């Protein structure tokens, strides 16, 4: 087939023999890519009389938008919350490794830490696109320190904080800068949270409720002010109670402002949440479910002791505990494992499982349809999967950045 | 005419596709000798297109040296609207085969000067050496392309206002909402199709039976424009049983009796070593 001279001279790649996730279903369609974005082949044909320069035979694979992990604390021995000189290198190292799990964009997460750590770490990593060097960074996820002491989980108590009067200014003192921050997790029952939630939301930062003992009305108030996410649903919050469902009640709340949605993160590693609880959440509000790994330093490493933030944790099999306790300190699951587990535990369709790891996090962060979709014009961040949803290859901006077996 | 009667829609589609395939192969198209094909849209030819795609995928047929001319297109419908005939051809045929974009021709219903667009289309057909085989369907009101009842039997490509029957028949593609159906279209004329070397009309389903009866058992009449092809030297009607329900038993028996002869036209060509 001759090369096309058209609107653009850039080469066109056609992925054939595949099923693509589009319009909420798996379609037997070819996927066309030019200049790092999904191309409309009908327009190419009629307007430009163009063709593909290169064909990639996908061997029947499923093509989904690249996975987006909005809560990942580190991995492979790297701990994002450690104030080191080469935080940027650490983030890049993990960014490259997670390509193997189909993750093409992520939010490096910092657990509750002292201001010195934020002041040192935050300036070192900017929002940037992914590529052969690794998955793209969408911005930090700051989980704490404005969280509830009662629900701190694995977070170190001595660095927890409350909002002083002056809300956002105090926040800025603690964090130093919010320039490359995508998400902030906080406990809305802390006095002064309302103005903080409002101001953060107005700045375009996703506000998430978590590590909190808030009741439903406090949670709903926070949503009114702009909060749109729940950090690892069920974990580190009041359990569902039929007379006060707490934060969990947001899934079916009738006080969500029109045109807005509440998303909720779920660690579908089979450990953090009982499969029955996962199913209840999924069935109550399927379009809000966002799969997160909440992976810690030890993800990718062998069993043993490792550091997380200012604490020591211990790996036993697939479990990671605060050393010496039975408190879970994070997961060591990978995103593709979470997708498979979620599908198996919930009985959902392949399309729903894939959307929970791509479309929903993109919608949460307001970056859809550029990310999280395979619409014409979307970024060509792709993950090729087999029938069992195992990752065969990962692409960023239409370029192959990882292939199994290489 | 040849009246080819098959048992059902699938068999009729397959017969028609094989006929087209054989015509192209016998013609032996090449870079200096393109096979020109006139093409229809609608639900009737879908089965035929699927079969042609199958022949391409099996390596039995290539559209590399085939030029196509579609019969019609709606006026005012955006080209990328899912119900435009451009979208129909892309989704149901072009995207699955190896045809080059520059060899496909579909009228532009959004052209600034619609009649100039029609005149230009006629010139393109002439420049391509005329149409070898024009494939068409028939409307319930006996129209060919959008040559509605009352169209001149020597008409050329032009703008037409659609008849109520046609709008109603097409409403099913627009969520059943009559107000969404375009009211005008650009269409090849009856005369344009008559200029083709050979014409093949696909007619399936009981709802087309009366139109078929009017087209072949009554006189040439501008109220049933397909009847014009009674005066074409090479016309072939491919039908299923249901489409013959309004014909005389005598007509049906006569042509069914000739199927063993007509089936020779669709035999698989002698196999050649596959080209790499």
From TrEMBL, chain A:
Which sites bind Zn(2+)? 143, 211, 232
Cleavable signal peptide: none
The EC code for this enzyme is 3.5.1.25
Which co-factor is required? a divalent metal cation
Which keywords fit this entry according to its UniProt record? Answer: Carbohydrate metabolism, Hydrolase, Metal-binding
What GO biological process terms does the UniProt entry carry, in alphabetical order?
A: N-acetylglucosamine catabolic process; N-acetylneuraminate catabolic process; negative regulation of UDP-N-acetylglucosamine biosynthetic process
Q: How is the cofactor bound?
A: Binds 1 divalent metal cation per subunit.
The Gene Ontology terms for molecular function here are: metal ion binding; N-acetylglucosamine-6-phosphate deacetylase activity
Keyword Metal-binding carried by entry: yes
Q: Which InterPro entries match?
A: Amidohydro-rel, GlcNAc_6-P_deAcase, Metal-dep_hydrolase_composite, Metal_Hydrolase
- Specify which residues bind substrate according to the UniProt entry for this protein: 154, 235-236, 243, 272, 328-330
Name the domain of life: Eukaryota
Residue stretches making up the Amidohydrolase-related domain: 62-401
Q: SUPFAM superfamilies this protein is in?
A: Composite domain of metallo-dependent hydrolases (SSF51338), Metallo-dependent hydrolases (SSF51556)
**Catalysed conversion reaction:** N-acetyl-D-glucosamine 6-phosphate + H2O = D-glucosamine 6-phosphate + acetate
Family, according to the entry, reads as follows: Belongs to the metallo-dependent hydrolases superfamily. NagA family.
The molecule here is called N-acetylglucosamine-6-phosphate deacetylase
Species per Swiss-Prot/TrEMBL record: Maylandia zebra (zebra mbuna)
Automatic annotation (TrEMBL), chain B:
**Record-annotated Glucosamine/galactosamine-6-phosphate isomerase domain positions:** 10-234
Group of enzyme by EC: hydrolase
Q: Which GO terms describe its molecular function?
A: glucosamine-6-phosphate deaminase activity; identical protein binding
Q: Where in the cell is it found?
A: Cytoplasm
Cross-referenced Pfam families, in alphabetical order? Glucosamine_iso
What SUPFAM superfamilies does this protein's entry cite? Answer: NagB/RpiA/CoA transferase-like
Task: Tell me its EC number(s), please.
Answer: 3.5.99.6
Q: Which UniProt keywords apply?
A: Carbohydrate metabolism, Cytoplasm, Hydrolase, Phosphoprotein
Top-level taxon: Eukaryota
**Keyword Hydrolase found:** yes
The record ties this protein, via PROSITE patterns, to: GLC_GALNAC_ISOMERASE (PS01161)
In terms of CDD domains, this protein maps to: GlcN6P_deaminase (cd01399)
Spell out the family assignment given in the record's similarity comment. Answer: Belongs to the glucosamine/galactosamine-6-phosphate isomerase family.
State the oligomer form and interacting partners.
Answer: Homohexamer.
Question: What role does this protein play?
Answer: Catalyzes the reversible conversion of alpha-D-glucosamine 6-phosphate (GlcN-6P) into beta-D-fructose 6-phosphate (Fru-6P) and ammonium ion, a regulatory reaction step in de novo uridine diphosphate-N-acetyl-alpha-D-glucosamine (UDP-GlcNAc) biosynthesis via hexosamine pathway. Deamination is coupled to aldo-keto isomerization mediating the metabolic flux from UDP-GlcNAc toward Fru-6P. At high ammonium level can drive amination and isomerization of Fru-6P toward hexosamines and UDP-GlcNAc synthesis.
Q: What is this protein called?
A: Glucosamine-6-phosphate isomerase
Q: What does the organism's lineage look like at the top?
A: Eukaryota, Metazoa, Chordata, Craniata, Vertebrata
């Amino acid at each position: 087939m001759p090369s096309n001279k058209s609107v653009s001279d850039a080469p066109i790649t056609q992925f054939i023999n595949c099923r693509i996730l589009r319009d909420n279903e798996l379609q037997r369609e070819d996927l066309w890519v030019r200049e790092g974005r999904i191309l409309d082949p009908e327009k190419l044909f009629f307007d430009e009389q163009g063709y593909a320069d290169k064909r990639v035979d996908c061997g029947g694979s499923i093509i989904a938008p690249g996975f987006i992990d909005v809560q990942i604390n580190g991995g492979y021995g790297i701990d994002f919350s450690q104030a080191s000189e080469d935080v940027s290198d650490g983030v890049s190292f993990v960014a490259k490794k997670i390509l193997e799990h189909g993750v093409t964009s992520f939010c490096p997460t910092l657990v509750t830490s002292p201001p010195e750590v934020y002041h040192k770490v935050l300036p070192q990593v900017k929002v940037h696109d992914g590529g052969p060097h690794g998955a793209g960074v969408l911005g930090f996820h700051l989980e704490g320190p404005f969280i509830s002491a009662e629900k701190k989980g694995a977070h170190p108590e001595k660095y927890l904080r409350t909002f002083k009067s002056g809300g956002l200014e105090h926040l800025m003192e603690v964090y130093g800068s919010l320039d490359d921050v995508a998400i902030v997790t906080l406990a809305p029952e802390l006095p002064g949270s309302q103005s903080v939630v409002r101001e953060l939301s107005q700045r375009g930062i996703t506000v998430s409720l978590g590590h909190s003992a808030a009741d439903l009305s406090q949670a709903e108030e926070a949503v009114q002010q702009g909060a749109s996410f729940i950090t690892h649903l069920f974990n580190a919050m009041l359990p569902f109670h039929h007379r006060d469902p707490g934060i969990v009640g947001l899934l079916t709340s009738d006080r969500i402002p029109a045109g807005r949605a509440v998303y909720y993160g779920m660690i579908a590693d089979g450990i953090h949440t009982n499969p029955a609880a996962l199913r209840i959440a999924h069935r109550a509000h399927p379009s809000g479910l966002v799969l997160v790994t909440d992976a810690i330093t030890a993800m990718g490493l062998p069993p043993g002791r490792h550091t997380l933030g200012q604490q020591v944790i211990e790996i036993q099999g697939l479990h990671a505990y605060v050393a010496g306790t039975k408190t879970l300190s994070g997961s060591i699951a990978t995103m593709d494992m979470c997708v498979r587990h979620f599908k198996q535990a919930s009985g959902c369709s392949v399309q729903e499982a894939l959307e929970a790891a791509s479309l929903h996090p993109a919608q949460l962060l307001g970056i859809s349809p550029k990310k999280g979709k395979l619409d014409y014009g979307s970024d060509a961040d792709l993950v090729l999967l087999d029938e069992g949803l195992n990752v065969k290859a990962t692409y960023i901006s239409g370029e192959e950045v990882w292939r199994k077996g290489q | 005419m040849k009246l080819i009667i098959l048992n059902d829609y699938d068999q009729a589609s397959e017969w028609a596709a094989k006929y087209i395939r054989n015509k192209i192969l016998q013609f032996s198209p090449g870079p200096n000798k393109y096979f020109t094909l006139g093409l229809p849209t609608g639900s009737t030819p879908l089965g035929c297109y699927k079969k042609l795609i199958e022949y391409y995928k099996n390596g039995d047929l290539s559209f590399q040296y085939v030029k196509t001319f579609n019969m019609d297109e709606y006026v005012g419908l955006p080209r990328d609207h899912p119900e435009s005939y451009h979208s129909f051809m892309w989704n149901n045929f072009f995207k699955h085969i190896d045809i080059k974009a520059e060899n496909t021709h579909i009228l532009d219903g959004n052209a600034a000067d619609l009649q100039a667009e029609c005149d230009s289309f006629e010139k393109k057909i002439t420049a391509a050496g005329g149409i070898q085989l024009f494939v068409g369907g028939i409307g319930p009101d006996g129209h060919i392309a959008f040559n509605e009842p009352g169209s001149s039997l020597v008409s050329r490509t032009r703008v037409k206002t659609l008849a109520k029957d046609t709008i109603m028949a097409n409403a099913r593609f627009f969520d059943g909402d009559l107000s969404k159906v375009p009211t005008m279209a650009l269409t090849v004329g009856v005369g344009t199709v008559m200029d083709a070397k050979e014409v093949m009309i696909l007619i399936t389903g009981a709802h087309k039976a009366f139109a078929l009866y009017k087209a072949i058992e009554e006189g040439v009449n501008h109220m049933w424009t397909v009847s014009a092809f009674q005066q074409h030297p090479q016309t072939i009607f491919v039908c299923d049983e249901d489409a013959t329900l309004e014909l005389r038993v005598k007509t049906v028996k006569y042509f069914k009796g000739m199927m063993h002869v007509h089936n020779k036209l669709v035999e698989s060509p002698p196999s050649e070593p596959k080209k790499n």
